[in-house]
Amino acid sequence: MKNNTLTLITLLVSTFTFACSCEWGGNFLRASKYAELIVAVEIVDAHYNFVNGETVTSKNINQYPEDVFVSENEYYTSLKVQVIKVIKGAETRHFFEIYGTDGADCRESLYDFKIGQKLILNLYQSTKDDRSQPNEDEEDYSLWGCSENWLEYDENKKEVKGYIKGKRRRSKRVWDYDKLLEKIL
Length: 185
Hints:
Shape: globular
Largest sheet: 5 strands, mixed, barrel
CATH class of the domain at 27-149: Mainly Beta
Low-confidence stretches: 3-17
CATH architecture of the domain at 27-149: Beta Barrel
Radius of gyration: 19 Å
Structural class: alpha+beta
Oligomer: single chain
Distance between the termini: 58 Å
Helix content: 10-25%
């Protein structure tokens, strides 16, 4: 009886403490088949969204005290992007936000992306629910973290770089942008 009770408690606790658990879903080409939106973008700003609804941007960060990011102030990251080109899907806005992970979902971490960086992204529409991050709504997007959903984009050379194809994350490849479009579309 003790074992059954212990098993039941363990199951209940594990149900309430959900964390992302996913297997690698594939390279960029494979993941692009399932993306709702594929876009070429430039990152124009980073946003730090606090639980109280306040947002600190990379442009106004100097107006806040240095301790705004201490561990007691829980915050989440999003990126404001400018659309260079819509490759697949429908999006008419020139600017929108992409939300990253809170550590418990299966989204991509956004901390390594830089302002001014140009990317090709496979995106998914955000949903507004009790697990949404502060300031996130249905008009925003997220970047899935269980497959390769972003490539570096050099607009001048018309090249992309990343884990474009292959079974494993062996090495990043450089491809012609038009070749990528042929494979996606």
